[in-house]
Amino acid sequence: MHPVRGRLPSLALSVVLAVVAGIVLTGAAPADVRVTEERVATAEDVELDTSLYLPAVTPAPAVLVAHGFGGSKASVDADARALAARGFVVLTWSARGFGTSTGQIALDSPDAEVADARALVDRLATSPEVQQDGPGDPRVGVTGASYGGALALMLAGSDLRVDALAPVITWNDLGQALFPNAAAAARPPAATPAEGIFAPDGVFKSGWAGMLFSAGSDQADQARGTGADPCGRFTSEICVAWTEAATTGRISPATAELLRRSSPAAVAGNITAPTLLVQGEQDTLFGLDQADATARQIAAAGGRVKVEWFAGGHDGAAPDDAVRDSIGDWFDHHLAGEGDDPGTGFSYAVQSGVRAGANTPTSRVVSVPAYPGLPGAAPLVTTPLPLEGDPQQVVHPAGGNPAAITSLPGIGGALGSLAGRLSASADPPGQSATFRTAPLAAPLVAVGTPRVQVTISRVPGLPAPDEAVLYARITELSADGRRILLGGGVAPMRVPVPADGTPATVTVALPAVVAPVETGNQLAVSVGTTDQAFTGPVEPAVWQVGVTGDLTVPVVPADSAATASTVPPGPLLGLVGVLAVAALGWLIARLRRRRVTAHAASDDGPPLHVTGLAKTYSGGFQAVKDVSFTVEKGIVLGLLGPNGAGKTTVLRMLMGLVRPTAGSISAFGQPVGPGAPVLARIGAFVEGPGFLPHLSGRDNLRLYWAATGRPAEDAHVEEALEIAELGAALDRRVGTYSQGMRQRLAIAQAMLGLPDLLVLDEPTNGLDPPQISAMREVLRRYAARGRTVVVSSHLLAEVEQTCSHVVVMHRGEVVADGTVEEIIAGGGAATFTVDAPERAASVLSDLAGVRSVEVIDGGVHVELNGTPRAEAVRALVTAGVGVTAAGPRRRLEDAFLQLVGEDRTP
User: Which of 28, 512, 609, 798 is buried most, with the most CB atoms less than 10 Å from its CB?
Assistant: First the structure.
């Protein structure tokens, strides 16, 4: 159930849950890999669509490759071809309810999907292309990610013919994955790095569960071409369990048993085949604790286990080349008898914060001989860190709203690891208690599940139900004030609390994490009352929360000989030389530019200065040509132009979203480009705000600001909310908003932090006349305080009433710029209010160049045709005509149409 990379969270839910099933080796396969297609009946009403990949030499060992949730056999085609290129016979298939296979989704039930896989092993036992270990016993391995990974474990636990397996980012106990409870009383210390606390009656992980069920429902509509079915392609048992959980937020005994049957935990003790467990360090769906539980169960039964954690998961990157190589090497040795023994070690990735390319994080991999705490391995090492802080009262609001935002299912990578950057300010006021360690005296790398003892008690005289539902998380506090959420999520707990005021004391397993913590930084444990990703109670409550004892942090040290980097050593050697040359060049350039840069920074410069800007796209289309203009402080500038004039392209270049082909943009004297620091002084609403429809307006604003990493007090949220004027709707889901409401929320979002330069694209779309009038006043007041506003709009009358200055673009070029009055007066049409209209008409008619003099309703309308208006006034006064008013006759619309070549005057 790993999400496809590069997609935004607002896309279809099925895309969010689609699996990155490329878990083995990628790359082009040789031409002699042959593929045969076959439909295989595995039950009376089930027919599977299968593909068999044959290597150049047969008979050969076989590998079953299971796809992930939302995928099909096509999802793993590249992986199958890569394994076949290694010399394996590979069998892929579309599971029940997916692709063109028939049947209903039963979530890896032993009687359904697992039985299907056993039937496929039976077919391999009769295939002459597959190496056989005995009658009816093929040499076979199995691998898969997420949904496919659980299938691999359950097949190996129920069919001893499986000779090796490599499950990836999958679950151990599906009930605990979807209804986690990370707290329990009187628990012994953890034995292994990521050992969780799988207490019963957990808290419903509704965000991820909803994604899962919706993906299955979408499959039904696409495959059948029929109307919507509430159950989609799920079995009736799964549908009933989902409906119950979605409506009650609780797990019943029947649902717990159903999910237990679909869990490797039920059969892991039967697995004897060598097992490579690969789990992601960025995963709020199936965390490291799930793989830890599987490793303990297999090892306790005498099985052979190797554990690898990689820098990715359902909220991060797909398995990298190193992981794919490990899986390929695992099958080479344990199925084909080739290559060195991969052993039974443990490795984890420590991210460096540096990215290779756009989406690939770099890291160092630390390895030890065995997974700590397993039979025969070294015991787990932990570091105790005392926590400071008195017990604190926390409030659970009625309805659980507003709720804290710590993670959103499947979007961590798509948003640039947003979950890791969310700060503790994501908590609504009064909803969380925080306890801190002292600044660390030495660096520390947390590897696994930190634990803490928490006390929960009632507050006399204040409301509280029989049990507390709370969410704990761990945060790193840097010396410069930054807060980084570790583990990407929270540890939910459901704890019965005595009615007599006695505190309930529980051990809490915090989210498992691999995180380096620097000297001088602190760790903080926060316990909150709400979380957007879970379904909690609706009753209001007040709890007293404290901690006892230390924060226990697992560590898995290794000497330098046991570490490796994901950056290849060859390029590193070249990089060292390049960096040396670059450093010398940088020093020279720095010395040359020091005075210029210092002058620009001290001068501050105009809010916006555009010089010779041009943008040409592939194919030769020139969207912007030699655009130049300057915007001074304290003005509201309108950027006008017909569709295709290049306005939005200019705005996108201004925001650093598009690189210009030529020219430059500076803001406040600093160059503008992708990632430029000066962009922090610019607020923008261009081409849609990208709100998350399932969150409230308030939560969207909080999430947006949290993503900036800036302190909450700098957001000036109240001023922004005053601008939005959404009232009670601010706490409703944005998906229910009208266009006008979304527009007002978008403008409020752009104004968060009160930026010095505000850029708005069509800000009055969807607003009614009173709201437009109010918005006009807001923008004027904003500029009057010394800030600057740039408005792109097609509503010329609104620009005329709102803006003080205008830049007119046509066909990618600036055709006019100046004050609104100058643009309007540019054609020479003027109106004079005088005491003697007829005499005034005669005087004006005698002026050189003047034409078309008319007297209408007591006013004299004149086409000055280049004659200055001041000269006309002087002539009237000299002739004894009293002038009470003189001004332009045209509207901005008339001037605009003339400038862009669409003058409608005869």
Answer: 512
- The SS3 assignment for 228 reads coil
Are the C-beta atoms of residues 752 and 720 closer than 8 Å to each other? yes
Q: Cis omega before residue 59 (within 30°)?
A: yes
pTM of the predicted structure, to 2 decimals: 0.67
**What DSSP assignment string belongs to 163-181?**
EEEEEES--S-HHHHHS--
Q: How many CA atoms lie within 13 A of 670 on its CB side?
A: 17
* Mean pLDDT of all residues in 153-159: 98
Q: Are strands 89-93 and 62-66 parallel, antiparallel or unpaired?
A: parallel
The pairing of strands 788-792 and 757-761 is parallel
Q: Give per-residue pLDDT as tens, 620-663.
A: 788 899 999 999 998 999 888 777 788 888 888 888 888 899 99
Distances (CA, A) of 48 to 91, 165, 626: 12, 22, 61
Do 48 and 94 touch, CB atoms closer than 8 A?
yes
- b/e per residue, 839-854, with b = 16+ CB within 10 A? ebbebbeebeebeebe
Q: What is the dihedral of CA 223, 227, 228, 231, to 10 degrees?
A: -70
Per-residue tokens: 698: 């308030």
Q: What structural domains and CATH numbers belong to the chain? A: 1-163 (3.40.50.1820), 383-560 (2.60.120.260), 568-599 (no CATH), 608-818 (3.40.50.300), 828-889 (3.30.70.100)
Cβ(103)–Cβ(41) below 8 Å: no
Strand order in the sheet with 829-834: 851-856, 859-863, 829-834, 883-888
